[in-house]
# Entry
Amino acid sequence: MTLKHTLPLAALTILGASAVSAQDLNLDVYGYVKLDLNYDLDFIQGDTTNARSIGTTAETDGNFDTNVRQSRLGFNADVAGARGQLEFDLFASNGTSELRLRHANIRYGDWLFGQFWTNFMPLGQYPSTVDFNGPVGITFARVPQVRYTWDSGAYQVSASIEENFAPSDDPLLTAAAQYSDGNYTVRAAVLSGTTNDGTTEVDQFGYTLSAAASPWAGGNVSATFTDGEAIGGLLIGGGDEIVGGVANDVQGFTLALSQDLTPQLNVGIAYGQEEYDLATAVNGSDFTDLESLHINASYDLTEAITLSGEFSRVMRTDSAGTEFEGDRIQAAIQFNF
# Structure
């Protein structure tokens, strides 16, 4: 639920918004407060599932933890046809609850300027999970960019110049095309750029294909596939872009199914996988293959409060072919506004 506020010019002056013209500001305030309760049965993963960390620490007999770091607050503003967005959450680094910028952008006509989801990401086909990150195998990044979008309703074409998610002296170029008829959506995106590790520069190229459909009442099926070279940091698993002076190729995919059992109750399952040609070494560990499975249910207790639970299993395969897996049970209560 979004709370809408209209502030007159006098109020804006008090808020320091003196540059706004006599037009009123339409301000939408949105967000949620969320309490997560996690129980790791094997390896401690932190506040979100972390496939690449499985097996890097000693196995436990079980570990319980709670956090509210996923809670977020956002603002959408409209002044004389121009729009702006600011959004924050508490998911700072090192397990701390500090205000972190998610989105900060300006929209005018068909243009977007500022930080938003990368144009390469299939946002509309992102699986729904209780876990913060969701399944491996899908792209996930918010970056500063300039984007143009042509939208006819059923067809949408977009192109962007973006800050590279990996170390680079060059911008990242992306393009995407989408078709939707309401019951199903198909989307394709490509990217091109360069990245370096301080000594070697390699070319980046990637493409992602995604689709979603509602083939029966209350049901939704979605799938994504990503393939490319030197784009590992763009995926949830975060594999190295360059290994030994060579671009690291990666493939990733996700498959998800959700079903409304009642107007308040929904169940879902999501699977993801990432495969790298070259092993990524990080924090005393290495991996060539990551997998994840999320099985969840959510119930709308009221219009504003959602209760949810999830079982997840994440898996890591190292360069020697050794497999590690970790299981998590998660519950959450979320107040939406």
About this structure: The chain has one domain: 3-336.
